[in-house]
Amino acid sequence: xxxxxxxxxxxxxxxxxxxxxxxxxxxxxxxxxxxxxxxxxxxxxxxxxxxxxxxxxxxxxxxxxxxxxxxxxxxxxxxxxxxxxxxxxxxxxxxxxxxxxxxxxxxxxxxxxxxxxxxxxxxxxxxxxxxxxxxxxxxxxxxxxxxxxxxxxxxxxxxxxxxxxxxxxxxxxxxxxxxxxxxxxxxxxxxxxxxxxxxxxxxxxxxxxxxxxxxxxxxxxxxxxxxxxxxxxxxxxxxxx
Length: 241
What we know:
The protein is α+β, with helices and mostly antiparallel strands. Helices cover 25% and strands 33% of the residues.
C-alpha cells in the first residue's frame, strides 16, 4: 500500500445523530490491493475513491460496519415483491467504471431529488473530471454496475470485489438511481443483486458500510437478514437474524 497523507478532521455536528459530534480520520492511498483494503475494512475503515476513512468521534462509537451473510440470506416479503417487480424487467451490465453524459445527468438528478426531499446539501453539477475522481479512479480495480429499463440507464453502483474464502465479499461503495423510477425500490434491488452475485462467486458476505442504531436513513441495511455487526472489540456478531 502506498500512503500519500493522513488527516484527522476536527469534530463537527454528526450527519447521522444530530445530537453527537463526529470526526473522521482520512488516509489518501495511491494504490493498495483488495486484500489490504479488506484488512482495513474489517477494522471499520471504508473508502471513497482513493480516500480511506473511519470515525474517531470524541464521545460516540455508533458507526459500526454491517455485512449480510450470503449463504443464509432469506428475503422478506417486501424484498420478494421487489424481486418479482424487477427480475427479468431490468437489465444489469457489469463492467469497468467510465464516464458518460447519461451517468452525469443521472447523478445530478438523484442528488437534486435527495436535496429536495431529504435536505441533502446542494452541490454543483458534476463534470466529467470530478465524476472520474470520485467513481472511476480507484487504488485497485472495481466494478461498475449499470441498471437499464427499456434500454434507459436508471441506476449505477460501484462495487469492490474482495476475494477471500473466510471474510471476503462484495462491498457496496455507492449507488444512485433515477428518482422517477423510485417505485421500483432500486436501492433494494441493487442489494438483492449484490447478494445473488456474491453467491454465484462463492463469496460469503456483502458489506453495506456503516450502520448507526437510531439513524432512520440506515435502517434499511439491517432488513437484509441474517446480518452481522462489527463490535467495538473488532468481533463480528450476529445482529438481525
